Task: inverse folding
DNA sequence: CGTATCATTGACGTCGGTCAATTCGTGTGG
DNA sequence: CCACACGAATTGACCGACGTCAATGATACG
């Protein structure tokens, strides 16, 4: 099934870079926002290194036991799972500022895979350090709980979308959600054109629809002059209309 | 839409009971498992009270600002959301041992509602106490992160189910997942008959299918001698077959 | 250029939804 | 104790959203 899907092989050894938190662009958006600037070395002490991964390689795969925890700094990733049937479910599109590799039981194998969509830079922490870190700095713990709780809320949103909305609305909601995230991150409130490096197949795997059907839906959205997605570029033509189509209750937006 | 669905009104004032952690049946399964038995009073000090809610009432509703956090002690609850279209998405079936009412931003209104399916007992903590609690007892923080991380994993599982599996497998997976939880909780490894107080409509709202179709699928599962769900009772006839039908990779089970 | 991946479109099939009628089960009041 | 009511479960007939299959373009890359 899906023979067309590329099997991307993992590069052998991703390069590790020296750790340097001083000019981290997304500090406030991530765990480190829990600390004051003059406390930065606390986290830097625990941190292992930075790492660059080329597009299409995996940060980790389902079944692996991880010894690290990651903080994406730049680039796009996809968390996904493969079923026995061969179908792929994309669980989440990860943008910088998230938090990857954490699990309740740190010694259990990962339940999903994390693959780079574009080139990606991640900040690497050793897992073992975390209990001690939380012990010494409860503020980081609170921050983490908050971030993970946010993941739960995003998950609910995604589940609601896939479980309850018809195709067009589902795609509209998905695009809008990513668009809002991008716009917020860039502090560019009027950038109605955004780069969106997702294939239609990936969008389909995220929304439980076939790539063919995604294509037809995108055509509809284009013809209705709501959004245009072409050449990895997303243009929002009618934000209000898109919102309406996405059937978002005002409550929905609170997550972002 | 869905005029048939009962509109259950909230009882006026649920009774508060005195707090007493000493003989809590599910202590190890919940936050409190982070502490030793002789430290129990630490948590009991923070705790507000216990509370009993009748079936069909709400613990909280989407849009409300909560000042409390809850620990279900007994009974079944459903977390859900209503879309503008009128459709309801059940996000999760809550059994004792979970953790309700937490959000990244404690002051924001809740994004979903929590309704009692059966009579329910919850253990109530004031939200405001939590920062201080975490400060003093980082172990509780770790525990919380673990519990919330577990929620994320369950969410992924649910999303995968709804997004990637055809109807029969979807229902099989759902029933199996609940069945495993129940069996584990009761430490009754051979109880292949369990009480399951969910209507077919509720199952449908959880899985993104209509009650009518759920009914037809249940008939199939019955005719294939895998499970029988009748009169709020779940009988697993063929656990192996059910697993196979649910298309679970071994990885799936790790969550429970 | 030749090849690989992604996007696009048409024809057709099916899974699950809709509508509606009937039955079942349980609780309630006479 | 029975009659009734109301929600839930069950079933059939029909329909539509979405999937499948397959062919054709468009783009990028070595």
Result:
């Amino acid at each position: 099934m899906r023979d067309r899907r590329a099997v991307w092989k993992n590069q052998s050894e991703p390069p590790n870079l020296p750790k340097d938190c001083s000019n981290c662009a997304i500090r406030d958006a991530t765990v480190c926002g829990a600390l004051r600037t003059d406390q930065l070395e606390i986290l830097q002490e625990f941190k292992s290194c930075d790492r660059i991964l080329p597009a299409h390689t995996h940060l980790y795969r389902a079944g692996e036991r991880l010894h690290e925890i990651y903080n994406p700094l730049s680039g796009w990733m996809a968390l996904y799972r493969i079923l026995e049937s061969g179908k792929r479910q994309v669980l989440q599109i990860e943008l910088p500022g998230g938090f990857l590799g954490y699990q309740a039981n740190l010694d259990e194998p990962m339940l999903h895979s994390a693959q780079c969509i574009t080139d990606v830079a991640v900040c690497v922490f050793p897992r073992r350090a975390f209990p001690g870190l939380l012990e010494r700095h409860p503020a980081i713990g609170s921050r983490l709980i908050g971030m993970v709780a946010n993941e739960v809320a995003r998950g609910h949103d995604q589940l609601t979308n896939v479980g309850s909305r018809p195709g067009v609305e589902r795609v509209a909601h998905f695009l809008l959600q990513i668009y809002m995230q991008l716009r917020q991150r860039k502090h560019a409130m009027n950038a109605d054109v955004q780069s969106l490096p997702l294939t239609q197949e990936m969008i389909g795997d995220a929304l439980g629809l076939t790539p063919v059907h995604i294509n037809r839906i995108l055509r509809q959205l284009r013809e209705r002059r709501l959004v245009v997605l072409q050449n990895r570029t997303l243009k929002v033509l009618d934000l209000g209309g898109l919102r309406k189509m996405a059937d978002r209750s005002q409550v929905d937006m609170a997550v972002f």
Notes: Residues 224 and 241 of chain B are 9 Å apart (CA to CA).
